[in-house]
Amino acid sequence: MKDTLDQLEVVNSYAGLPAPFYTRLKTQPLTDPTLLHVNEPIATMLGLSAKAVNSSQFLQVFSGQAPLPGGDTLAAVYSGHQFGIWAGQLGDGRAHLLGEIVTAHGHWELQLKGSGRTPYSRMGDGRAVLRSSVREYLAGEAMAGLGIPTTRALALVGSKDPVYRETVETAAIVTRVSPSFVRFGSFEHWSRRPDMLKALLDYVVQRHYPECLQPAAGEPDDEQGVALRFLGAVVERTARLIADWQTAGFCHGVMNTDNMSIIGLTLDYGPYGFMDAFKVNHVCNHSDTEGRYAWNAQPSVAHWNLYRLASTLLQLGIDEEALRQPLRRYEPVFLEAYRGNLSRKLGLVRYEEGDDVLMDGWWQLLHTQEADFSLSFRRLAAAVQDNDAFLQHFPEREAARAWLDVYLQRVGRDGRDDGERVAQMNGVNPLYVLRNHLAENAIRAAVKGDASEIDTLLSLLRDPCTERPGFEQYAAEPPEWAGLLEVSCSS
Ligand code: AMP
Ligand code: MG
After folding, report:
1. 346-380: buried (b, 16+ CB within 10 Å) or exposed (e) per residue?
2. Whose CA is nearest to atom 13 of ligand 1?
3. Each residue of 476-485: pLDDT tens digit?
4. If we measure between CA atoms, which residue out of 488, 423, 190, 408 comes closest to residue 313?
5. Catalytic (active site) residue 92
6. pTM over 0.90
């Protein structure tokens, strides 16, 4: 373990890309910063001791007052499609890459978010409010606790500096941690510069998809082959990621191509949401008035985004038909992952032909009865021993009864011991979910300088399926006021 940040092994591979990829610049520090929270598992993963975390140097670096020793601070450029429309150049408008830490568990880039203006800020102030920073900080751990690929966070720093959104709020910086922050939009940015595109492709493949350098039997051992295998790998990771989102009741909220990770992580937590009552077309982002990024739209939006990524590769001289091949893998990979996830959540030994009817019926039931997404799976596990415990949560008992009868027959055919199935289901269906109102409680306390609610939530969300006595209210359906909460693009 390192006791100071100077002892970390820092490299700067992104800074090794050609100069147009980024701007080297300083961060703009917060005034009088306070360290609100440190994510200890991530600090440990990075090799930082308690002494390092408690040092004044730690606060200086992660509040933007000092660079990471050995790091090349920079803001990266990218472009993207926002809400389906080409938005042109975007980029790190309020984020700074500090450098990349070499650990026994791989390379981890550290990035400050909310650390001041950059050449890519456009009209923005380069800041992030505490509210959205707490939400981002919690979300990475919640997703990791569910086993869903995600960026993580190391530290949360607050300040009294005012930030003007709909109201006056205060500024914060969250330090994000990821093997890479490259986005689909990073590729789209070079849609007229094949030389730059090639440099980016080589960089990403070398670091994150080295297996794509090796041709499979019958595949061409050339640049095109690498690009096609790379696209196929991104398609597969993205398809699996979206399947995980769907079966966790997670809505990203802003699936613009600049928010799509090239390594298949959940990236850029803004107006995301874990569903309370299930609604098939639930829209978590109040700014998304058309419902473009509704829960049931996410799978097709991701596919559309992959098309945007694929079309950048046309410039490398790959013909269109060849690019369509890996894109066709999306649906089967998604369906297999989705059916596998949902089978586990429903306690089926494995997906069988015909189970789609049962699965669609489940969503239909939850939707029409406005049943709680997460708790319904937990209640289903208990339904075999006590049908009533399950049925009482549905206003139209008959509809629930009809579905449950079909379900009980289906699990009966599996011939598995009930106790075993219940244990398996309760091992995958979370009791503690990062519901909006729970995040809101943590935000309200954090605004007063109290991070204890963040602590409590993190301890529950890291092991979300294990029941913890005394924390019943964290596993309960949301209170009425939760329905009044609105999350939007404002952050
Ligand atoms: P987002 O919708 O958060 O993914 O952001 C879209 C683009 O706007 C990205 O290029 C961000 O860096 C930029 N952006 C968002 N908020 C701000 C801000 N307050 N200051 C500067 N740039 C911002
Ligand atoms: Mg973004």
Report:
1. bbbeebeeebeebbeebbebbbebebbbbbbbbbb
2. 93
3. 999 999 989 9
4. 190
5. no
6. yes
